[in-house]
Predict the 3D structure of the following.
Amino acid sequence: MPRTSAVDRVQEVYATSYRRLVGQLTGVTGDPEEAEDAVMEAFARAVNSSRSFLAADNPEAWLRTVAVNVTRTRWRRSRYFRDVSHRVAPDPRVGSYDDLPDDRLALLAALRQLPAAQREAIALHHLADLPVHEVAETVGAPVGTVKARLARGRAALAVLLAEPDTQRSPR
């Protein structure tokens, strides 16, 4: 029986996991286009790191971890660029969400307001349905830290997504 080549395995995992990974990373990044870029970069790295990818027990988890790390690196670089440049650039996300329902837009807007660590934990646990220990492995943090990030992130989202009527104090 012939062994599966790295490219064949990447194509197989791409067919079964691409859309799910993009959905998960959209929660992490808050931007569907950025999520697609990160996932595609992860697949490209899978081909270039074929030995590591083929040895992975869970290729989708391997790709998810790589994609999360790609988004972190990009975020650090863009933050550095914003700090170095003193001019304000237009928001590249404007117009990216025209086809999304209002409740999804509200969720993405609220997620973007969370600190990156909380946003990653919320997106991977609640949107990607990963158990806490897998979120911890993906983001490289202890389980207790991930639980704390989830609790803080949920509390912050509750406030951000609350209806205006429920934010008023009773008289």
Q: What stands out?
A: Residues 84-93 have pLDDT under 50 and may be disordered. The chain has one domain: 6-167. The domain at 6-167 is CATH 1.20.140.160 (Butyryl-CoA Dehydrogenase, subunit A; domain 3). The chain has nine helices and no strands.
